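Per your request, structure below.
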């Protein structure tokens, strides 16, 4: 992985783990006081604390810089993509059908209207946070009054049986925790109240909804002991099973007519270049983004021969939508009939989080080999991504060097979205590595591939156990300039990065 070898999903530290579910924008300025108290509490019980959230506010760097640095270093950020959120609900409905059905019924009963909670964006995102936390396997769940975070903590508590703490430093605001916050009291084993919340009579309400004896003041002398006792109870339940992000385990898939592989990664990591080079080998068929949702909506089967696709395109599209497993096997069969011994495709991270059936299938292929492409310089990747979005140019061949638009000369970056991308990509690298940890994986970086394509493609052929041959590519790098020249507000971005865990990226970077 790019900055660190740590994988938070695979690492099994003996320390107590506390998952803190934050407000929807983390770390928002108005939250930093309570976040500081929570960090202090976790230090008192010697815990590894992680913050589960969805976004980063524009006001990120208001306040103490070192405090923000520590918060971001402990970030666990979940996507706000609606398809991914639906897949996360589907995960719980597949793995815990009865419990999830009752949970959704209980949430619906708390709403004033009988709407399906799965269609409420904040509830969907709460399920995403809960699934992410489940993979990290905490010993204790903690939230502080806000809607999505507290809903995620209550969902995880109900479905996973992990002890749960709710901190209310002040009375809930209608806009922050509408309708459901009293339900959270019933899903809470310890309610911690600040002075404003006590003055508002929250303790009296808690006695009617929360379990008996479960309320304590934020400044109580036995607060740390009570939190530590709950965490210890949760820790006793922790297992050593490693997460695979699998929903419904499949029977191992054997006896395929060709050896399968994946090129796994995110955008702007050299995946097009590697796929093209592999395709120039006579024994290899490397499809493109078979499960890209945009291409699927357009009916495109990326990398399939046009004549073949025209003959039965509708059947193949239907098969892909109804049964990704059968679709993948069919493409392997066709390629094998064409004389290919190795058949693969490109899977971007977000393709793998929007359909549980696809991952459930891939991890059940014992012979699958995974080439995991990453890019060490996250800033360079992000600048390249923004330029591609603004220009609409995601791929360039050697022949269109002079004719294809290469993006604006400069782009303006926002610090909060830049950091959000860094955190998101880091977590997705870890999630992908955890998902395929039981399979052979070749780690390769964009920087290595760009600097020595012949050497790195040879590594890939050796990994796939294919005869080494010189490989060709029609693609080329779409950028090789200094970030200072390409980012119009470079000084602002560099100054902001220096106050975060990504301070090293404020140095010169090639994009």
């Amino acid at each position: 992985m790019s900055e660190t070898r740590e994988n938070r999903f695979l690492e099994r530290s003996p320390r107590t783990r506390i998952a803190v579910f934050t407000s929807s924008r983390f770390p928002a300025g108005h939250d930093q006081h309570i976040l500081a108290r929570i960090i202090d509490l976790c230090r008192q019980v010697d815990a590894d604390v992680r913050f589960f959230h969805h976004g980063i506010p524009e006001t990120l760097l208001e306040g103490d810089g070192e405090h923000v640095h520590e918060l971001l270093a402990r970030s666990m950020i979940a996507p706000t993509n609606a398809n991914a959120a639906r897949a996360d609900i589907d995960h719980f409905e597949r793995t815990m059908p009865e419990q999830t059905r009752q949970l959704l019924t209980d949430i619906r009963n708390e709403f004033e209207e009988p709407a399906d909670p799965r269609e409420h964006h904040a509830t969907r995102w709460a399920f995403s946070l809960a699934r992410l936390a489940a993979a990290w396997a905490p010993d204790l769940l903690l939230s502080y009054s806000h809607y999505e975070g507290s809903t995620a903590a209550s969902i995880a508590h109900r479905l996973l049986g992990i002890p749960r703490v709710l901190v209310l430093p002040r009375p809930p605001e209608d806009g922050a925790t509408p309708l459901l916050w009293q339900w959270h009291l019933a899903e809470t084993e310890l309610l911690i109240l600040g002075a404003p919340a006590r003055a508002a009579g929250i303790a009296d309400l808690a006695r009617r909804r929360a379990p008996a004896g479960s309320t304590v003041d934020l400044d109580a002398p036995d607060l740390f002991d009570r939190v530590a006792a709950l965490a210890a109870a949760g820790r006793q339940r922790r297992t050593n099973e490693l997460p695979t992000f699998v929903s419904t385990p499949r029977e191992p898939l054997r006896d395929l007519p060709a050896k399968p592989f994946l090129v796994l990664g995110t955008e702007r990591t050299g995946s097009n270049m590697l796929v093209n080079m592999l395709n120039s080998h006579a024994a290899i068929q490397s499809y493109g983004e078979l499960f890209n949702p945009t291409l699927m909506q357009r009916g495109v089967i990326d990398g399939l021969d046009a004549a073949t696709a025209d003959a039965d395109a509708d059947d193949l599209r239907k098969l892909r939508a109804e049964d990704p497993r059968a679709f993948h096997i069919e493409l392997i069969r066709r390629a094998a009939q064409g004389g290919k011994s190795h058949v693969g495709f490109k899977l971007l991270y977000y393709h793998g989080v929007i359909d549980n059936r696809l991952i459930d299938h891939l991890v059940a292929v014992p012979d699958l080999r995974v080439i995991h492409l990453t890019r060490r310089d996250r800033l360079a990747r992000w600048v390249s991504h923004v330029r591609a979005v603004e220009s609409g140019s995601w791929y360039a061949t050697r022949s269109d060097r002079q004719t294809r638009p290469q993006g604006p000369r400069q782009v303006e970056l926002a610090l909060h979205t830049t950091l959000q991308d860094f955190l998101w990509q880091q977590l997705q690298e870890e999630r992908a590595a955890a998902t395929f940890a039981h399979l052979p994986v070749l780690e390769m970086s964009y920087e290595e591939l760009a600097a020595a394509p012949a050497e790195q493609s040879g590594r890939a052929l050796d990994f796939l156990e294919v005869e080494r041959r010189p490989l060709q590519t029609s693609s080329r790098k779409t950028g090789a300039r200094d970030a200072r020249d390409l980012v119009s507000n470079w000084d602002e971005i560099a100054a902001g990065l220096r106050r975060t865990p990504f301070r090293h990226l404020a140095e010169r970077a090639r994009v």
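The longest strand covers residues 47-53.

Regards,
D.
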